[in-house]
């Protein structure tokens, strides 16, 4: 899976206050969390991504997100597991994937 460079657009919020983004924008946001550019998201990198949303309890949400997404139990979220985070993000990170 490759990531396209999608030009930034104005942030949109749904009626319930969730940030709306499409799946590609969500994946780009995740890829930006990859601080060491190794192509996968570590627990710490994901926790920092959660913190960047302004979400409370970033440590707990980071742990839960990793647990739900890291299906191969490698300790990292790789590109094949990014889609696993969609449901988690919508439920816990005030994000709505449209």
Automatic annotation (TrEMBL):
It comes from the Eukaryota. One of its GO terms (molecular function) is calcium ion binding. InterPro entries: EF-hand-dom_pair, EF_Hand_1_Ca_BS, EF_hand_dom. This is EF-hand domain-containing protein. Pfam families: EF-hand_1 (PF00036), EF-hand_5 (PF13202). It comes from Solanum pinnatisectum (tansyleaf nightshade). The lineage of its organism: Eukaryota, Viridiplantae, Streptophyta, Embryophyta, Tracheophyta. PROSITE patterns: EF_HAND_1, EF_HAND_2. Coiled coil: none annotated. Keywords: Calcium. CDD domains: EFh (cd00051). Residues 21-56, 66-92 form the EF-hand domain.
């Amino acid at each position: 899976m490759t990531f396209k460079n999608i030009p930034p657009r104005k942030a949109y919020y749904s009626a319930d206050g969730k940030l709306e983004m499409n799946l590609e924008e969500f994946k780009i946001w995740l890829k930006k969390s990859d601080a060491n550019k190794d192509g996968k998201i570590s627990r710490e990198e994901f926790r920092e991504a959660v913190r960047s949303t302004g979400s409370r309890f970033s440590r707990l949400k980071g742990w839960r997100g990793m647990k739900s997404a890291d299906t191969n139990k490698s300790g990292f979220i790789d590109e094949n597991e990014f889609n696993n985070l969609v449901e988690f993000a919508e439920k816990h990170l005030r994000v709505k994937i449209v």
